[in-house]
Write a sequence for this structure.
């Protein structure tokens, strides 16, 4: 199965937050548990809004929760 | 399995039932020769209106029955009808495929009309592709949910 270019630390962060369940995280951010499962496995890249909501649920900045693993591009060298 | 995922099975079944009933009666009428003569076009129009009305009723009844049964089986006081961005994405992806099928059906029906086929044949080609689009749309959503992304 293909993975998205966005990996994440959700599983680790859930563990660090009193072993928060996927269901509880899903309820906090307003999605289904299946969506959290798909995001956690990097099968689905969430929208920017959902990504921010998940980061907020863990009181972490976005880049500590999600990691972009695609090719690096810069303003000087666009793809 | 969330409610949204299960409701795709209901949509699949109801689409097959609705169009199954429609084509059952339509073929009977066709063999009786009721689509020939002066009142043929009016009968085609009435048949399609019955299909739409019947389709809406069957869909509503099926989804209400399913919601009751689903609530009884899962024993949830308030079943989770939540539709999130992933659900909407699956719906849109499936809808795009359905749109292509209906578009192809429209072209096929126009080709039939251009080749001198009757209005009955033309309309029913279009309806057949609509039925196929509905079935494929449900199958696509079931596939996306099973795949998970």
């Amino acid at each position: 199965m293909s993975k998205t270019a966005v990996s994440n630390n959700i599983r680790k962060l859930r563990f660090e937050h009193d072993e928060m369940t996927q269901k509880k995280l899903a309820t906090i951010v307003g999605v289904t548990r299946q969506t959290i499962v798909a995001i956690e496995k990097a099968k689905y890249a969430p929208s920017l809004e959902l990504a921010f909501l998940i980061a907020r649920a863990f009181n972490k900045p976005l880049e500590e929760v999600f990691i972009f693993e695609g090719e690096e591009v810069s303003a000087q060298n666009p793809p | 399995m969330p409610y949204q995922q299960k409701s795709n099975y209901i949509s699949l079944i109801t689409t097959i039932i609705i169009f199954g009933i429609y084509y059952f009666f339509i073929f009977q009428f066709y063999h009786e020769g009721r689509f020939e003569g002066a009142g043929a076009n009016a009968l085609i129009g009435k048949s399609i209106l019955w299909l739409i009305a019947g389709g809406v009723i069957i869909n509503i009844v099926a989804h209400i029955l399913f919601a009751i049964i689903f609530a009884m089986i899962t024993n949830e006081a308030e079943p989770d009808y939540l539709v999130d961005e992933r659900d909407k994405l699956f719906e849109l992806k499936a809808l795009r495929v359905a749109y292509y099928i209906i578009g192809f059906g429209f072209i096929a029906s126009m080709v039939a009309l251009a080749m001198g086929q009757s209005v009955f044949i033309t309309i029913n080609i279009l309806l057949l592709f609509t039925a196929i689009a509905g079935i494929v749309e449900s199958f696509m959503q079931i596939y996306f949910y099973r795949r998970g992304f």
In short: Chain A has one domain: 6-68. Chain A is about 45% helix and 10% strand. The radius of gyration of chain A is 13 Å.
